[in-house]
């Protein structure tokens, strides 16, 4: 037998970490030779894989004169390893077919991955399941990358995790394993804020660079984003075997500098396998005019480049046009498993039942959500931009309770003495930095006043009652913890209050959250800088009333997701009932999205033959409108919702068509209503018990603006027909609401009301022909057909009354709007509507269904333009290949 030596075959090869070589009974394959000689040949093959893709490594074995029979046995053993990787129970993945699975796990000679394992063990990570799961999931991702020695490639993949679930540790492990196998340049796009970039740089330096400093060169530092370096040859020249790490934020200026530097270094990049990790890949990457093209430009300078996005909210990424030269994850989507002990959306908020599930078997979540009354919201958040200037927050009863509970929970954690040493409370009410700053004085006053009042019997009774109530609602024993009695935590309270800092964490802050210099106890008030990626260490209490309109933004603002080792019974979240419902819906969306990935993984689908469905919501967008331009809209559910028009075209023909539709509906209502209430002096007409088909006919002729996805006529009529088939919404009340002081608008003979004034929002660069009036319906209008006094009813009260009085009757309200609609002088951010014809606004109020008879609707990426052809790969296995 020929000697097994070659200049291309390194000799420093040992057995891999873990069970690299399965026994025959474990794989189900026929037994393969296990002689020392064969093992030596297989080790040579593995060594060759560091320098060549599998097919090329086989050719090298042939050149060494190894027999065809032995080579076939080597290939079969390697195939067993690749099958093991492909068939890992977790994580699930959907993959573009025929990707060469060259990576089969760590080797004993590796340096970067073993260093990470050592660090995790020192941090107390258990071998099974934590480290094993991380090993499997990162191995799966690396196996989907291209072999670093392939001549050229441009891979696009997506890894979907959970908010605050260890995605950074996962991609750090992927970087480590790729570095051990020959990837050279690592570019990490770390969010859009300096805080997250710095935090990511620190983690990567700690886990990658410090254990193996001779292996790494850094283009960025803790306090230094990318600046062009001289002499690219010193980083990328063939004589330099170090790996290059670059952690940059998604900032156009920074990325432009990086692009130009790489472009100038192109002579050295031909043989530079590159891995780009896009952390928070849904943020700034998708459908942006600057960041997206710059990422693509950077990739264009790198002939061997793999792009892998990481995100917990992949909604935008999954809606990219797959047919465009963009970042749609065409090569793979990996669904990371939920780590043990992770607090996710479903754990906290529960979710709705999916198709085929028994609602009784779906968990409602832990009892950790506390309600903030709607009346409290204006006290802690300015309701308009104009109100933000000079805003003074009020410490409401619910906010004070949340803060006091935070101090109690912190004291209890000190008694326990386990888990994370930090303690944080989050207050997130607004994105405005001036609003954040306004909280400092009242919060510090409450802290100081409480500190000097700890001997007050009334205060102690209130705190004791609060603690007993909360610990009774969420028993510590259910989480493997022991309840801390109030008497035991009371001695800790003075020091808790003394050490508690009030920190404004925003882009203007001089002092930010810093967990690197000893234990922190802090009430953090912030907005965007705290709402994505950044970990709030020891977060136990959140007070959250920030209103947002998109799934991904809302989900990423939930900093309370993550791990709560040692205090899993203590987290609490204060928010409005509406926000809690939105998060419950998000939990349903997340679960269904992941189920789609799991299902398609088993059906021989690829990212280019299936599109993950994303369940929609009438009050929320899946993501920003610009990111949904290539999405296919299916439908939505409207039970218990209010739908209203606020976008309008201003051209005459469009508006006249809507006037004709409205007059047709009113004329038919006059003729078909069972009863009519005419109050022209109040600007009100109500026609009761109108047949539903008149509403459907109106919706088919009335034109909604295309920028109002929640006002899709097909979705609305489809929903109505579904409810009608279930015995509901057969009758409707049609109302007209006008301005008693406005000039008359006639809908039908004898049916006239004054025109309403609805000025448009003033925007710097308005879209031609588009007007946004922001709000059409008042709360009172949604109750226009209810009996008795409704003036004091809130939103929930109105819906409760509707369910009691009109459980199966819909309400449609028509609004005539004056085409000029000049704003009052006090409305500084408004301007005249100035339409070419009077405008007809429409509001619809749907009763909540007594039973779930609705059909949920979805959007997904449009795959209609994708053409796939099956290629014949049999030639690769033929004798003539």
Task: Give a description of the structure.
- This protein has 881 residues and is α/β, with parallel strands linked by helices.
- An eight-stranded mixed beta sheet has the order 1-8-2-7-6-3-5-4. Strands 10-16-14-11-13-12 form a six-stranded parallel beta sheet.
- β4, α9 (233-236) and β5 (243-248) form a beta-alpha-beta unit.
- α18 (440-452) packs antiparallel against α21 (493-499) and α24 runs antiparallel to α25 (692-701).
- The model is unreliable at 1-32 and 866-881 (pLDDT under 50).
Topology:
Layout: H1 24-27, H2 36-49, H3 54-63, H4 68-86, E1 92-95, H5 112-122, H6 127-143, E2 153-160, H7 167-180, E3 185-190, H8 194-209, E4 216-218, H9 233-236, E5 243-248, H10 252-264, H11 266-269, E6 274-279, H12 291-300, E7 304-311, E8 332-335, E9 342-343, H13 345-349, E10 369-371, H14 377-380, H15 385-388, H16 397-416, E11 423-428, H17 433-438, H18 440-452, H19 457-473, H20 486-489, H21 493-499, E12 501-505, E13 521-526, E14 539-544, H22 551-557, E15 562-563, E16 572-575, H23 577-601, E17 614-615, E18 631-633, E19 642-644, E20 647-649, H24 652-672, E21 675-679, E22 684-691, H25 692-701, H26 713-725, E23 731-737, E24 744-748, E25 751-754, E26 760-761, E27 770-772, H27 795-805, E28 809-817, E29 830-831, E30 839-845, E31 858-861
Parallel strand pairs: 2-7, 2-8, 3-5, 3-6, 4-5, 6-7, 10-16, 11-13, 11-14, 12-13, 14-16, 23-28
Antiparallel strand pairs: 1-8, 9-15, 17-31, 18-31, 19-30, 20-27, 21-22, 22-23, 24-25, 26-29, 28-30
């Amino acid at each position: 037998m020929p000697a097994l030596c070659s200049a291309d075959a390194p000799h420093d090869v040992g057995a891999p970490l873990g069970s690299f070589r399965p026994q025959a009974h474990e794989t189900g394959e026929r037994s393969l030779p296990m002689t020392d000689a064969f093992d030596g040949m297989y080790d040579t093959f593995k060594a060759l894989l560091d320098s060549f893709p599998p097919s090329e490594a086989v050719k090298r074995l042939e050149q060494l004169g190894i027999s065809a029979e032995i080579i076939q046995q080597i290939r079969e053993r390697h195939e067993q390893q690749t099958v093991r990787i492909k068939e890992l129970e977790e994580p699930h993945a959907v993959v573009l077919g025929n990707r060469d699975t060259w990576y089969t796990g760590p080797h004993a000679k590796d340096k970067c991955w073993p260093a990470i394992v050592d660090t995790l063990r020192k941090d107390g990570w258990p071998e099974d399941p934590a480290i094993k799961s991380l090993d499997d999931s990162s191995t799966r991702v690396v196996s989907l990358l291209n072999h670093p020695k392939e001549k050229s490639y441009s891979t696009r993949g997506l890894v979907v995790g959970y908010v605050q679930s260890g995605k950074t540790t996962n991609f750090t492990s992927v970087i480590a394993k790729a570095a051990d196998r020959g990837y050279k340049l690592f570019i990490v796009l770390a969010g859009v804020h300096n805080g997250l970039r710095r935090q990511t740089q620190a983690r990567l330096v700690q886990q990658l660079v410090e254990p193996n400093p001779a292996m790494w060169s850094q283009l960025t530092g803790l306090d230094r984003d990318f600046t062009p370096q001289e002499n690219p040859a010193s980083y990328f020249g063939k004589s330099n075997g170090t790996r290059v790490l670059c952690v940059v934020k998604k900032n156009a200026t920074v990325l432009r500098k990086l692009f130009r530097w790489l472009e100038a270094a192109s002579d050295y990049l031909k043989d530079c396998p590159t891995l780009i990790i896009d952390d928070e890949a849904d943020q700034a990457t998708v459908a942006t005019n600057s960041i997206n093209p710059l990422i693509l430009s950077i990739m264009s300078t790198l002939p061997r480049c793999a792009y892998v996005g990481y995100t917990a909210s992949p909604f935008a990424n999954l809606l990219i046009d797959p047919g465009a030269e963009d970042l749609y994850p065409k090569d793979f989507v990996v669904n990371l498993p939920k780590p043990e002990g992770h607090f996710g959306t479903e754990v906290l908020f529960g979710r709705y039942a999916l198709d085929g599930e028994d609602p009784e078997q779906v968990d409602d979540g832990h009892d950790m959500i506390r309600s903030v009354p709607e009346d409290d919201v204006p006290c802690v958040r300015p309701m308009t931009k104009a109100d933000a200037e000079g805003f003074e927050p009020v410490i409401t009863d619910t906010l004070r309770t949340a803060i006091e509970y935070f101090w109690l929970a912190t004291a209890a954690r000190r008694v326990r003495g386990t888990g994370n040493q930090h303690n944080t409370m989050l207050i997130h009410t607004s994105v405005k930095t001036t609003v954040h700053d306004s909280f400092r004085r009242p919060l510090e006053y409450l802290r100081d006043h409480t500190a000097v009042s700890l001997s007050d019997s009334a205060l102690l009774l209130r705190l004791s009652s609060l603690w007993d109530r909360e610990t009774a609602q969420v028993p510590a024993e259910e989480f493997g913890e022991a309840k801390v009695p109030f008497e035991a935590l009371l001695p800790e309270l003075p020091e808790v209050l003394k050490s508690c800092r009030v920190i404004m964490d925003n882009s203007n802050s001089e002092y930010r959250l810093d967990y690197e210099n000893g234990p922190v106890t802090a009430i953090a008030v912030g907005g965007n800088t705290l709402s994505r990626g950044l970990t709030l260490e020891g977060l136990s209490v959140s007070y959250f009333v920030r209103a947002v309109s998109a799934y991904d933004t809302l989900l990423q603002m939930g900093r309370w997701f993550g791990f709560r080792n040692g205090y899993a019974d203590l987290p609490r979240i204060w928010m409005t009932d509406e926000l809690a419902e939105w998060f419950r819906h998000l939990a349903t969306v997340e679960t269904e999205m992941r189920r789609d990935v799991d299902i398609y993984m088993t059906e021989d689908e690829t990212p280019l033959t299936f599109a993950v469905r994303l369940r929609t919501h009438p009050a929320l967008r899946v993501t920003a409108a610009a990111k949904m331009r290539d999405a296919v809209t299916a439908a939505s559910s409207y039970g218990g919702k209010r739908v209203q028009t606020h976008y309008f075209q201003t051209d005459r023909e469009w508006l006249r068509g809507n006037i004709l539709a409205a007059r047709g509906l009113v004329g038919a209502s006059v003729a078909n209503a069972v009863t009519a209430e005419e109050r022209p002096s109040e600007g009100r007409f109500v026609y009761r018990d109108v047949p539903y088909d008149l509403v459907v006919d109106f919706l088919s002729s009335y034109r909604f603006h295309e920028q109002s996805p929640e006002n899709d006529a097909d979705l609305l009529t489809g929903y109505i027909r579904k409810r009608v088939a279930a015995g509901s919404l057969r009758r409707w009340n049609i109302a007209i609401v006008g301005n008693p002081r406005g000039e008359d608008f006639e809908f039908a003979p004898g049916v006239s009301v004054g025109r309403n004034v609805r000025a448009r929002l003033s925007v710097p660069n308005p879209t031609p022909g588009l007007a946004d009036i922001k709000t059409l319906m008042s709360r009172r209008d949604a109750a226009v057909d209810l009996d008795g006094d409704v003036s004091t009813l809130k939103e929930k009260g109105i819906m409760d009354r509707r369910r009691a009085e009109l459980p199966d009757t819909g309400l449609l309200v028509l609004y005539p709007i004056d085409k000029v609609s000049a704003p009052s002088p006090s409305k500084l951010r408004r301007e005249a509507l100035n339409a070419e014809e009077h405008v007809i606004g429409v509001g619809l109020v749907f009763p909540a269904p007594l039973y779930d008879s609705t059909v949920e609707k979805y959007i997904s990426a449009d795959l209609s333009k994708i053409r796939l052809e099956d290629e014949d790969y049999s030639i690769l296995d033929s004798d003539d290949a």
